[in-house]
Amino acid sequence: MTFEDYDIEGFFDEMFTPDHQIKQGYVPFSEFVANLSIDDLVQKQHAAERSLMALGITFNVYNAEGGTERIMPLDIIPRIIEGREWDKLEEGLKQRITALNLFIDDVYNGQKVFTDGVVPKTLIESSKCFLKPCLGLQPPKGIWCHITGTDLIRDQHGIMRVLEDNLRCPSGVSYMLENREILKRTFPKALDDTQVRPINNYAISLREMLEYIADKPSPTIVVLTPGIYNSAYFEHAYLALQMGVELVQNSDLVVKNGHVYMRTTKGLKKVDVIYRRIDDTFLDPLTFNPESLLGVPGIFEVYKKGKVALANAPGTGVADDKVIYAYVPKIIKYYLGEEAIIPNVPTYLCENPEDMQYVLDNIADLVVKEANEAGGYGMLIGPKASAEEHEIFRKKIKANPRNYIAQPTIQLSRVPSLAGERIEGRHVDLRPYILYGKEIVITPGGLTRVALRKGSLVVNSSQGGGSKDTWVLY
C-alpha cells in the first residue's frame, strides 16, 4: 500500500512534507505498511475494534441516545513524534507545571502574584474553581497538581502550542496505555523497527508519586470514583487494578477519630492516600457543596490536618480556568524568570472591553469557549456555526463577559487516518500526562485525540472524536 493518493490539502501534516515527502520519523512505518493492502489495514482496524470491545474499553456519554456506554474509537495509524522534538516539549511541560504549582500555592497563601500586579485578584475571586476553604492550605510536600493532562496542538505553521491546562481530574491515560497494547499486536515489527519509547511504566510512576506524598512506608492507597455512571469509570477501575489498590466510592469511606477509613470485610482500615476522581466541590458536603452525594463528610478537615493525602489537592482547578490560561506565560516569567518554552494560543479575554468588542465583531472567525467548561462543551466554533448560533453566543458574552474567552480558529495538524476503505487526513491534538511527585515525570507521548469526522476540529470523545497511539522515538 502506498500513500500516493493521500491529499495534504494545504494543512500541516504530521507524516508528509508540503511536497509530499515522508518525514524521517515515519519512514520505518511507511516501509512496513507498503507491504500491506488497504484490505489488510481494514482487517487490522476491525481486529483492533474487536479487542477494544473484548477489553471493555469504554466511556460514558451523558444523555446519549440509545444508551450511555460507548467503545472508545481507535485509529490504528499511529501519530509519530521524533525524539528531539519530544525532548523540547518535555522541557516545556516541566517548566509550565512547575510555574503553575507555584502559582496555585501563591493564590492560596502569600498572594504576591496579586500584589505585584501579575494577575488581577478579581479574576481569581470570580473564578468558579477558586475555593475559599483552601486559603492557607499546605498540601503534602508543597505539591498541588500531582496529575496533569496538558492539551497541545500544532498549528498550520507547524508550531506546537498549549491549548489547555487540565489540573482537576484529567482523563484518558487508560486509553493511551491500552492503545499501545493493541498496536503492539497490530504492528509488532513496525514498533520494534521504529524504536519507540515505552510507556508501560505509567502505573508504577503513578503509585510511586502517591506513595511519595503519603510520606510513610507501605501506605494504604485508594482510587475514589463517583461510580459506574461516570464518563471515565473504566479508567478509574483500570488504574486501581494496574496499581494494585482498592477502587472505592464514598460509601466505602468514613471519617472517624480524625482519620479516613475504608470499610472492609475485616473491619475499618485506615487510608493514607486518595487518588480522587471526584471534582473539588463534590469532595466534602460539609465544606463545599452541601448537596453532594458523591463526597465523604469531614474528609477536608482530615486533609487539612495532614492525616490523609489527596491527589490532586483541592483548589488546583483555579489554574484550569481558561481566563487564567491567558496569563500563564506571565506566570512562568514571574515565578521562574524564563520565557515560556511552549507558547499559548493567542487569546482574547471578553472581560476586557476592547477584546469583547473584537470578539463580538469577528465571532464568525473565532472559537469561543466558556472559562470553566471541558470536553468540548460550552464552545462555539465560529466558522462552523450558524448566524443564529453566533447571535446566541453574543448574548451570552454580553451577559457574562468574565465567563468567555476567544481564540483564532486554528487548523490543527493532521495525521493519515483510516476513513472506511480510504486513508484521509484527520485533525489531531495531543494530551501528554504529567506526574509531579519526588520529581516531574512525563510519559513519552500521551493520548493523541483525533477528530474522526471529516473536516471537524473537535477531537473530544464525547463529541465524536477518537484516539491514536502516539509513538515517541529515541
From TrEMBL:
Domain Circularly permuted ATP-grasp type: 78-451
One Pfam family from the record: CP_ATPgrasp_2
Designated name of the protein: Uncharacterized conserved protein, circularly permuted ATPgrasp superfamily
Domain of life: Bacteria
InterPro entries assigned to the protein according to its UniProt record, in alphabetical order: ATP-dep_Glu-Cys_Ligase-2, CP_ATPgrasp_2, UCP005522
Protein source organism: Thermoflexibacter ruber
